[in-house]
UniProtKB/TrEMBL annotation:
Lineage: Bacteria, Bacillati, Bacillota, Bacilli, Lactobacillales
Protein name as annotated: NADPH-dependent FMN reductase
Positions of the UniProt region annotated as Disordered: 335-376
InterPro entries in the record: Flavoprotein-like_sf, FMN_Rdtase-like_dom, NAD(P)H-dep_reductase
Gene Ontology CC terms, in alphabetical order: cytosol
Species this chain originates from: Liquorilactobacillus aquaticus DSM 21051
Gene3D superfamilies in UniProt: 3.40.50.360, PAS domain (3.30.450.20)
Biased composition, class Low complexity, residue ranges: 366-376
Domain of life: Bacteria
Length: 376
């Protein structure tokens, strides 16, 4: 997580600056915080072209690239310091780097109030239509009596304050993740190429994979997958190039009966009902499409207590395998390969039985495994 932290004063010495440097070090394992200054920015003037003010554009660029912004705000005359107000005016006039940006406000003061009135004003300012930032609600970090709570090395000694800061900061990181997930959600419906949480990791009993790896792994499999959920709705398909069954994201969430050609619907519904009831676990179908031998398996997906979760459809063009079999790729004098060859012969015989009818290239439905497919 990359954050920009803005020191809300142009003074050479500032406890708010010390607070931000403390946060930079204290949270270094969970966030990369760049502390930025406003002391070199000119006072805001509507007549000056912002795009020629390189220091402002530099800060605006850093904000745009960051996942969020932290403002450390001193209190001057019950409000925010004028240089900070001026900086926000620059950042909200003709450019909009703060727009929808997650923001955390913190503040330190000599007195006990911890800049509370300035923080209220800063919230109002950042909510203005031109700034339009997303300030973390429900949390504020007010550090009073700063001259006592920081030591000479800039370390915070007040355990209660550290606890409060940790809590606010963790809330802020969660807030950023929620806003980022929200922003991605729209895109993910536009494109099946964007996993919803691209930086998530799933821990399986047999190892862990990043969500992006799962997505690409499923797209790399030499067969295509479709999943119909327990409510008989088309829930997901693998994003494989040149699919035999071309699917559209528009069909996601639709009842499965609306996603198949009318002549196939009764057979599909029968499979789903047999899977749901537990009568079957697997149905095979072989057919020729556009000159290719296509092998499709429907598999009931169940949880560890056998509750039906949905149906997985696996479709593959088996031309390559068929050619390998026909050209004797599995026959050899070598013992182990011979054994494999024998079992291939057996399975070939079984296959011949299994696909009778369906393999006559009429695309008809054949639940060839109905005899031995009970689960358990
Ligand atoms: C012009 C000016 C006005 C101030 N007004 C207030 C105020 O209204 N309330 C307050 O609590 N402190 C006020 N202070 C004190 C600041 O809160 C204090 O200097 C604080 O530490 C500023 O943070 P800094 O060390 O990061 O500059 C004021 C200080 C200055 C210089």
């Amino acid at each position: 997580m990359k954050l920009v932290a803005i020191v809300g004063t142009n003074a050479a010495f500032s406890y708010n600056r010390i607070l931000l440097h403390y946060m930079q070090q204290h949270f270094e394992k969970i966030a990369e915080i760049e502390v930025c200054e406003i002391n070199e920015l000119p006072p805001f003037c509507e007549d000056l072209p912002v795009k020629k003010e390189s220091k402002i554009m530099e800060l605006a660029y850093k904000i745009t690239k960051a996942d969020g912004v932290v403002f450390a705000c001193p209190e001057y005359d019950h409000s925010i310091p004028a240089p900070l107000k001026s900086a926000i005016e620059w950042l909200s006039y003709e450019i909009d780097p703060l727009k929808q940006k997650p923001v955390l406000i913190v503040g330190a003061s000599y007195g006990p109030q911890g800049s509370s009135r300035a923080q209220q004003h800063l919230r109002q300012i950042l909510a203005s239509p031109d700034a339009n930032a997303n300030v973390l609600p429900g949390n504020e970090f007010l550090l009073g009596n700063v001259a006592q709570v920081f030591d000479k090395e800039g370390q915070l000694g007040d355990q209660q304050a550290i606890k409060q800061l940790n809590s606010c900061f963790n809330e802020f990181l969660s807030y950023i993740r929620i806003l980022q997930a929200d922003a991605r959600e729209d895109k993910s419906f536009n494109s099946v190429k964007n996993p919803f949480f691209s930086d998530a990791t799933v821990q399986f009993p047999t190892g862990k994979l990043k969500l992006l790896e799962i997505q690409q792994l499923l797209s790399t499999l030499p067969f295509e997958l479709d999943f119909i959920d327990a409510d008989d709705e088309f829930a997901w398909f693998s994003d494989k190039a040149q699919r035999e069954h071309v699917r559209s994201v528009d069909d996601l969430g639709e009842p499965v009966k609306d996603c198949h050609p009318p002549q196939a619907v009764p057979a599909v519904l029968k499979i789903l009902s047999d899977f749901r009831s537990g009568a079957k676990d697997r149905v095979e179908r072989c057919f020729i499409a556009q000159g290719h031998p296509i092998y499709t398996q429907y598999l009931a997906v169940r949880d560890s207590s056998n509750k039906y979760l949905g149906t997985l459809e696996i479709t593959s063009n088996v031309e390559h395998l068929k050619n390998l079999l026909e050209t004797g790729a599995f026959s050899s004098e070598a013992g182990s390969v011979k054994a494999a060859s024998q079992s291939t012969k057996e399975s070939k015989e079984n296959e011949a039985d299994a696909v009778t009818g369906a393999s006559q290239h009429d695309g008809s439905w054949d639940d060839t495994s109905s005899s031995g497919s009970m689960h358990g």
